Amino acid sequence: MLSLLARHSSILLLLAAVIGFSFPAISTAVFPYLPYILFFLMLFTLIGMKQNALISLLFQPKIWVYAFYHAALLSILSTFIASVLGASASLILAISAVAATGSLFATPAIARSVGLDVMTAMAMTIATTLLMPVVLCINLYLFQHDSFGLDLMTYFQRLVIFIFGPMLLSDLCHRYVPSHILQRTHSKIAQVTILLVPAFPLGLMADFRTFVDQSWQQGLLYFGYGIAICLLFFITGFLLFMRKNVQNGLLAGITSANRNVLLTYTVAGTALGPDYLILVGALQLPIYAMPLVVKWMSNLLNSKNPTQTPSVN
């Protein structure tokens, strides 16, 4: 059953977003538990990775070039476009926070489901997560409204718990649990990981649904913003990183579009402004539609270039 659900995870993610929007009471009930699910999602993902290969990838400059693009360059590009189009200060703040956000920790599992390089996806995810606190602080300093503030002590405490905590526990598991046991449970951990992800689109839709109930026209507009942001992130990632291999472009695109928006909210909270959770809700359907888009693109491109093989260079 787990393997069957994991195989159809892309549909499950979209269904969770639809259910969360259709039944906001369920979304509201799930929301308080999301930080705990996030913690275990990050831990299970890290435990399932080969530490030596992962660390080796993290020392490669290309990973940090991608991370700089993912957080810093997209922050500049997206907030510039929003400013030119006359977006409100609160919306620009929310967009800057989304742009600073690292990739979903389920990205390796999603990459596996569409036939992309899992280990590189994990390295990109960790690098963007480690860079996120710095870029987010800069973005909050630049775009925060006077009525908001960031409690730095709480911010760093949450960073330690939700970013470095899973990394430390994973390292301890790899040090003290025999490798053959970890390898044997790797496939099951990967399946559990992808099954935790639907909780996020399910639990993050309530604020957006309330916003839509107040004004469906504004709700539709914010949904358009969500689609535009995902397309901007995906297309720029794809075009910038497809030079050597189309698979690299697809991996960069989906990693860029997948955003761990709950982690950003968990560590920064109300400092992100009133538009953040609304925008996050509007992003859920576009974000989780991306695996289906990438799978379609990958099949289409591979059919045109059948001799091309994936590369991580």
UniProtKB/TrEMBL annotation:
Residues that span the membrane, as ranges: 12-31, 37-59, 66-85, 91-111, 123-143, 155-177, 189-208, 220-241, 262-289
Q: Which domain of life is it from?
A: Bacteria
Q: Does the keyword Transmembrane apply?
A: yes
Record keywords, A-Z: Membrane, Transmembrane, Transmembrane helix
**Which InterPro entries does the record match to this protein?**
Na+/solute_symporter_sf
What is the protein name given in its UniProt record?
A: Bile acid:sodium symporter
Please tell me whether the keyword Signal is annotated for this protein. Answer: no
